[in-house]
Predict the 3D structure of the following.
Amino acid sequence: MPESDSIRHFRTGAINFTLKGGRLRALTCYGEEIFSLVGLALRDPNWGTIPLRVGEPTIVEHSNHRQISYTAENHLNGARVFGWSVTLILAANRLSVAVAGECLTPYRANRAGMYLRIAPATAAGQPASIHHPDGSITDTSFPTFISPHQPMQRVAGLHWNTPGGTHIELSLDGEMFEMEDERNWTDDAFKLYAPPLDQPFPVAYHRGDRIVQSLTLAIYPSQEGFRPLPRLHGCTPLYAREPAQRLAVTRRDVLPGGVVPAVFRSPVHLAFVLGGEPVAELRKLLPLVPTLGVGFVSVATVADKMLTGDTLRELFPLLQQSFPHIPRGFGSAFYFTELNRFPPPDDLDYDFVYFGNAALVHETDEWSIIETAAGQAATVCAARARYPRQEVWVSPLSLYPRFNPNRTDGGRATEEVYRPERQLHDDFIAGWVLRCLLHLAEAGCATVELSEIDPARSLFRWLRREGVTAIRRISPASQRHKTEVELRAGGSTYYILAEHVAPYCFSVVPLERKGI
């Protein structure tokens, strides 16, 4: 049999592992190691391990799972002692391993078949439930200190939670298993093996004798740690044009005296972006604006860094008169900088503040773009501290700055802003937006409005269509090369992986949820 020494890495949904030499190594879920090893062993009457030769795996991709198959043989002194056929089925949060062995040469063995090594780093001290072959259940715990004897016996199934809250359900079939604490011999594992040591050994195997074993691992995500997802709006630029006495839809950006409603979802946010005469412009615009479907109204300016307190005192009553029962706010048409440097007087009554965030302001490399997600969270935290009674919105979230309030050439802030001549991959853009949503949710942002990012618009539509209400971090914030999150939508949970380095990846996998 041709022998394989390949190393394969597999990832499906929440489950990750490496296949090397016929062994599953470092099986992790949500960054926590569950199994350090799943393998085959043939032990001689003196507990020596018979060498195993493993063939090249065959991988078949299906619509909702991946099948991995390979064969293996134990060889001793040139003789083929045992032959094995192994099939793995890997789905979003479920793994099954089926093992079929056949004796090829008569042999006496203390142990033959599959074994599992559970990682103490995520199991030691954790409460567990042992499911026995007769259907009974024993509540116990994984040992914290090294157990001198078998801590778990007559094991047909084992349930426990990791320190991170992930619920693990392990089912074993074909033989009765038991556990020993391999830390006695400095192996960092709780090992499950069959048959139990209280059964007679060695066992005499004859040619043609078969061993059939299987395991099923089901992983259910924790329902803790989720943060409310901000409301999601999209921005479609509109501006008022005389003498048509109506709002003319264009694909242009906002002009002084313009109106920018976020029509991506209802209710609409009607943002009046005003010019050099804000009060007069708002008086002129209000009769032209339909009130049906409007859920939020706000004012901002592109003629100056920010609207002054005196101007806001005149604008807010006009908004109150036209939209008497609708939340109102104000914002910066540029960056958080303006909102931070020019706060309004404390005596004003309003419901929310907003500002725009753009990634490509200073640096243009991909890692710098990814790092802006954490910077956006910082702006929201600072805004919430400065405006403790109001909601904080990011509007819009964009890759490129819309305006430049710091021009030195005498041009208007609304003139075309320089954009780097580079194309970003769609999956990279969607991954950046996902990372931004995660950071903004953790910072307590109430609403995110989107502009000019087509790949992200598709993500926003999917989030809204599925009814996603909460998001949870999986990968640590320090990992710049990828973002892993879970999303909650009603009775469904989704796992999303975004790889931020070439060849890029943005994958969505539905997970099973368990009422525990």
About this structure: Residues 366-386 form the longest helix (21 residues).
